[in-house]
Amino acid sequence: VRGGSKIRNLLSHAIGEFPEVGSVVWTGFGPSVGKAITCAEIMKREFKDLHQITRICCRLVEEYWDPKIPELDQLVVKRKLPMIHILLSQQPLDSNELGYQGPDSTGQDADASHKRKSSKQSRTPVKEFAALGVDSKKRVKKSKQSRKSNTEQQSTSTDS
Q1: For residue 160, how many other CB atoms are within 10 A of its CB?
Q2: From CA 45, how far away is CA 54, in angstroms rounded?
Q3: Strand locations in 36-95, DSSP E?
Q4: What's the distance, CA 151 to chain centroid?
Q5: What is the pLDDT of residues 54-103, one digit of tens each?
Q6: Rounded Cα–Cα distance for residues 23 and 21 (Å)
Q7: Virtual torsion, Cα 95, 97, 100, 102, nearest 10 deg
Q8: pTM of the full predicted structure?
Q9: 4: burial class by Cβ within 10 Å (0-12, 13-18, 19+)?
Q10: What is the maximum alpha-carbon separation in the chain?
Q11: What are the two backbone dihedrals, phi and then psi, of residue 89, each rounded to the nearest 5 degrees?
């Protein structure tokens, strides 16, 4: 996967070849790492029960810069760019391998539990607020005039 590659073109080719081959490796480095991850995730959604092994490393890139003034030496810049390899396979892979992810057999259950967790987190603890003397449903908004008079009172009290 390269920076200028279109995800649509990459996926159409990979999805067309995948049933015959049975595995695919998505590789991206530098700015295209995110695009490679996106392609792998879309493919995992398209084909259920895929096994995955992910490897992350760095690629050393040397850039040579020629000076505009002929008396100066050539400048060499060495950079380490992040690189990712994602292997997706229909066949079971070694589960002891570092970076292994098995197929998600509980896809619907995980979504349901996530919804339950998020709904519990979004509830306002009304009883706790009431015990503190704060009513969470009725919030009093101060007008601009009352805010202005409060700031004037604070400034005069600090001046005294």
Answers
A1: 4
A2: 17
A3: 51-65, 75-89
A4: 43
A5: 999 999 999 999 999 989 999 999 999 999 999 999 999 988 999 999 88
A6: 6
A7: -10
A8: 0.60
A9: exposed
A10: 84
A11: -140, 145
